[in-house]
Amino acid sequence: MSGIIRMYKRDEDGVLHFREAWFDDEDRHFVVNHGVVGHQSRTEESEIGEDTSVDGLMAAFAAQCEEDGYAEIPPSEQFWVVAQFALKTKDGTERDRYLERNAKAALTTELAWRGLGTVERSEVGNSRLNIFCLCPDVNKAVNAIKVCIRNEDLDFTKLSIAAAPHGEPTGFKLKHSPRKGAGFTL
């Protein structure tokens, strides 16, 4: 067992919480991150000795989460949220590749530390940069993306955001646009 374990649970008030754990090979730390989805999480790190089974720690973490009512949300029950930037050229320029790298990095961090999902891929073409994020909560993800792009000074005035259920890749609905009455096309 390796990688990251990420699980979610709704409390009695319907608030979505998350817990995740991973092993940091470089520092030999077992990391547990948790919190309310959409809010900055809390992180705890434990140094792990050479003789400690990382797989055992991950399995124990998963078992404790399940016991506490947490479960993975399969991709089929999540949403695609696309951050789209209008570009000046059809295939993008070196400046647009810079935007792509920086926006992906910023969004990866913003979403991860708030339990809001993952950046899955990006593509440049048709005068657009599209960054595809897989998210459990559309509205909170849209708000976090807007805040992140604005705070990182990454062409917020060119940003549109749309969302669709995972199983409906052509069913995108516009959630944010710099232009009134605009549509959304990938």
Please give a structural write-up.
The protein is of the alpha+beta class and 186 residues long. It has 2 domains: 4-67; 75-176, Alpha-Beta Plaits, CATH 3.30.70.260. It has 3 helices and 9 strands. The strands form 2 sheets. The chain has a 5-stranded antiparallel sheet, covered by helices on one side. Strands 1-2-3-4 form a 4-stranded antiparallel sheet, with helices on one face. The model has no long low-confidence stretch (mean pLDDT 94).
List the helices and strands and how they pair.
Blueprint: E1 4-10, E2 16-24, E3 29-36, E4 42-47, H1 54-67, E5 79-86, H2 94-112, E6 118-125, E7 128-135, H3 138-151, E8 159-165, E9 173-176
Antiparallel strand pairs: 1-2, 2-3, 3-4, 5-7, 5-8, 6-7, 8-9
Helix pairs in contact: 2-3
Helix content: 25-40%
User: Which architecture name of the largest domain does CATH use?
Assistant: 2-Layer Sandwich
When the domains are counted, the total is: 2
What's the mean pLDDT score? Answer: 94
Number of helices: 3
Biggest sheet descriptor: 5 strands, antiparallel
Radius of gyration from CA coordinates: 18 Å
| Spatial shape | globular
CATH homologous superfamily descriptor of the largest domain: ACT domain
Do you know the CATH topology of the largest domain?
Alpha-Beta Plaits
Largest beta sheet: what is the strand line-up? 6-7-5-8-9
